[in-house]
Design goal:
This protein is of the alpha+beta class and about 375 residues long. The protein contains 12 helices and 22 strands. A 7-stranded antiparallel β-sheet has the order 18-17-14-15-16-13-19. A 5-stranded parallel β-sheet has the order 7-2-1-11-21, covered by helices on one side. Strands 3-6-5 form a 3-stranded antiparallel β-sheet. Bound molecules: flavin-adenine dinucleotide.
Length: about 375
């Protein structure tokens, strides 16, 4: 049996290790941090949104959509749930199709993985940031204070988003040293910045709203979901989804009452004499009434088309995922490198990013399984 090294003890690395160990492979899991799965523990606002019942290629961005469709078809959301429940626990979808552990604790998912890896006698090396990866017939991996040789390597070291979880983008260089390219990187699922004056007084207000991204008068994305106002912009799951499309110069148009048409709203305002009580939260009402008084639009337009020009995003530090990475076109059908046989990829390091709602962990688990299957074919 071949010796396999997995670089990165996040969602993809741990899942890949479990698949390989269950098949009897000899695996060493190398993680630069002092704990496995730190980012996984923080997912879904600490509740762990592991997949989505609506999973399909339409919810992802990549350089090779057809290959992505083939890859996703090898691990459905139900397969993902079966895999997780195979380690323990119960996973259930909510009304919007987002799947969580019934106990709603992301850290417990990490505990499932750690327990399973222990049970399978995984060789886990913590505090090992692989800095050098070379090939001379076998792979050699080196880190401060250690090195090892292996027959195959899975590079599952994540992207550049949320560097406080150990992912600062430095691992792309390990792939580049074999001739891989990296597509342009940008933060995704991230808060958007706007002029602080335009959101003054709204900080902390969360609404279920319709959200459009408007570019030069044309709508380039629209969705429905949470919008949370911050000091200098907007956050929330609708904004995270919009962040995959919005660029500086676009305008976010917020509909605070997506279930109410303008005629009904006009009638309600006529009855209430312009009061917004029981129409929007009081804090939001105060700001909108002041804006309308100040001649910044009619109440109806402020309620249905509240406009915020996008000044940019809040950067990799605040992003949940990385857009861009190692192109899928540089891998085979099992995510093996087309530049160096024996080198496999899994997770966010690849040029695949999903919308908000569990799609990124589904990708981490799918790609982990595909890479494991590819390795096992060669063992
Ligand atoms: C706050 C937050 C909330 C999120 N919520 C959700 C959610 O609810 N649902 C969802 O689907 N997605 C969510 N995501 C995204 C999701 O967590 C990631 O897409 C997913 O974790 C990627 O898995 P990965 O294994 O590829 O990378 P990671 O989980 O980032 O793991 C990579 C690991 O590799 C290690 N590493 C890096 N370089 C080296 C090296 N050179 N040597 C050794 N180890 C190395 C890192 O320390 C890290 O532990 C969230 C992300 C964040 C930041």
């Amino acid at each position: 049996m071949k010796k396999i090294a997995i670089i990165g003890g996040g969602a993809a690395g741990m899942a890949c290790a479990v698949h390989l160990l269950r098949a009897g492979a000899k695996v060493t899991l190398l993680e630069r941090g002092e704990r496995l799965g730190r980012k996984l523990s923080a997912t879904g606002n600490g509740q762990g949104n592991v997949t989505n019942v609506h999973c399909s290629p339409a919810h992802y961005f990549t350089d090779d959509r057809e290959k992505l469709a083939r890859l996703l078809s090898r691990c459905s959301w139900e397969d993902c749930v079966r895999f997780l429940e195979g380690m323990g626990g119960i996973f259930l979808p909510d009304a919007r199709g987002r799947v969580y552990p019934a106990g709603r604790q992301a850290s417990a998912i990490c505990d499932l993985f750690r327990t399973e890896l222990e049970k399978l006698h995984a060789d886990i090396c913590l505090g090992a940031q692989v800095q050098n990866l070379t090939y001379d017939g076998d792979f050699t991996l080196a880190w401060a204070g250690g090195h090892m040789r292996s027959d195959a390597v899975v590079l599952a070291a994540g992207g550049k988003a949320a560097p406080n979880f150990g992912t600062d983008g430095s691992a792309y260089a390990l792939a580049s040293s074999f001739g891989h390219t990296v597509t342009p990187l940008s933060p995704a699922l991230v808060r958007l910045k706007t002029d602080p004056a335009l959101v003054r007084g709204l900080k902390g207000i969360r609404v279920d709203a319709g959200l459009k991204v408007v570019r030069k008068g044309n709508i380039c994305f629209e969705c429905r979901g949470d919008v949370l106002f911050t000091e200098n912009g907007v956050s929330g799951d609708a904004v995270f989804r919009a962040s995959s499309y919005a660029i500086k110069g676009d305008v976010l148009e917020i509909d605070f009452l997506p279930d109410v048409d303008e005629a009904r709203l006009e009638a309600a305002l006529a009855r209430s004499g312009g009061s917004l009580l029981c129409i929007v939260p009081n804090g939001l009402a105060r700001v909108l009434l002041k804006r309308a008084d100040g001649g910044h639009g009619t109440l109806i337009s402020l309620l249905k088309r509240f406009s915020l020009p996008v000044l940019g995003d809040c950067g990799f530090t605040n992003a949940q995922v990385t857009k861009g990475g190692i192109p899928l076109s540089e891998t085979d059908e099992n995510l093996q490198s087309l530049k160096r046989a024996g080198l496999f990829f899994a997770g966010e390091i690849l040029n695949v990013d999903g919308e908000c709602g569990g799609y990124n962990l589904q990708w981490a688990f799918t790609s982990a399984r595909v890479a494991a299957e590819g390795i096992l074919l060669q063992c």
